[in-house]
Amino acid sequence: MGKLVQQFMKFGVVGAAAFVIDYGLMVALTELAGVEYLLSATISFTASVVFNYLASMRYVFTHKEGLSRRREFVIFVVLSVIGLAINDALMFLGTSFLGISYLITKIAATAVVMVYNFVTRKKFLDAGDTAAIEPLELL
User: Fold this and answer.
1) Rounded Cα–Cα distance for residues 81 and 84 (Å)
2) How do the pLDDT tens digits run along the chain, 139 residues long?
3) Hey, what long-range contacts does 118-123 have (CB within 8 A, 24 or more apart)?
4) DSSP string, 27-66
5) What gap in Å lies between CA 103 and CA 125, rounded to an integer?
6) What is the DSSP string of 105-120?
7) Residue 36: alpha-carbon gap to chain centroid
8) Could you give the CA distance from residue 110 to residue 102 in angstroms, rounded to a whole number?
9) Is residue 58 a contact partner of residue 122, using CB atoms and an 8 Å limit?
10) 3-state class (DSSP) for residue 10
């Protein structure tokens, strides 16, 4: 269990850096460049995925033997696209439907997507000794 906590902490550090990229770019695109909030959230999320892949697969998760880097990246991107759909749905729901500021909605959406990302990346990409843990046990 200690290794899992340590891994989640590393994931948190990488995620915090990715969040700064994601949130900062979203705000800059929306406030400075006048890009619509949902488009800017999509662009910023996508940019943060590239950083997140490089950092996560280097510092957080252990590469699975027999899984090519190409396939690993494809899985990472597919999982991230699902995360993007969750992110955008929550952004739309919170901002357009509930009338909550996109700045606040983004923080809540990020928390939800963070849990999703850790659970799915742990399950599908990590070869560590805790890879057999069921997703609900990670929560």
Assistant:
1) 5
2) 788 889 989 999 998 999 899 999 999 999 999 999 989 988 998 889 889 999 999 999 998 988 998 999 999 999 999 998 999 999 999 999 999 999 999 899 989 998 999 999 999 999 876 444 444 444 3
3) 118/8, 118/11, 120/79, 120/82, 121/56, 121/61, 121/76, 121/79, 122/7, 122/61
4) HIIIIIT---HHHHHHHHHHHHHHHHHHHHHHHTSPPPTT
5) 31
6) HHHHHHHHHHHHHHHH
7) 21
8) 12
9) no
10) helix
For residue 88 the two structure tokens come to: 């955008």
Read off the pTM: 0.72
Q: For residue 38, give the nearest of 82, 102, 98, 126 by alpha carbon.
A: 102
Specify the long-range contacts of residues 111-118, CB closer than 8 Å, at least 24 apart: 112/86, 113/83, 113/86, 113/87, 114/15, 115/139, 116/82, 116/83, 116/86, 117/15, 117/52, 117/79, 117/80, 117/83, 118/8, 118/11
**Tokens (6 digits) for 122:** 């742990």
> Do residues 62 and 126 make contact, with C-beta atoms less than 8 angstroms apart?
yes
